[in-house]
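agent> Task received from the user: take the single chain below, predict its 3D structure, and emit structure tokens. No templates, no multimer pairing.
agent> Plan: (1) validate residues, (2) run structure prediction, (3) serialize to tokens, (4) report one or two observations.
agent> Step 1 OK, no nonstandard residues flagged.
tool_call: predict_structure(input=
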Amino acid sequence: MRLSLILLFLFSPFSVLALSVGEAMPDISGHFTQINNSQGAIKPTLLGQQRKNKPMVVAFFSVTCIPCIREAPDLEELRAKFASNQVTFLYVSLDPPGSESKLKTFVKKTKTEIPIFFADVEKVKKIYEAYGMPKLILVDNKKNITKIYEG
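)
tool_result: status=success, residues=151
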């Protein structure tokens, strides 16, 4: 049931926002920090290195956002379904600095294999217009935005 709802949400035309569909996905120069999901370790990384010329689903979330937590199992189920190198799934945390322990708890509790990145929250919010959560941005293999969903 939940998978049906997320698929309906992902592919419905509702909720497309001001970031322009068809334009290149904005990139944030510099490093994001990634929580290594298998061990809960934290390491610096470049977000762009995750692309691998595949379509991406980028989910902006917070550990304090109840709808974000509720959609986590559905996103994980989709990630598992497309795990054969078809689609890259990424989480970008909009949690404030110092939330690393809460993010580690989220990883352990949800058992997600989706990589989680965090960086300067205000910069991320501004560039990706990530003011409401959850927010999903679908990106094709050429780095162009195909859909944007919020809420």
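agent> Step 4: summary for the user.
The longest strand covers residues 56-61.
agent> Done.
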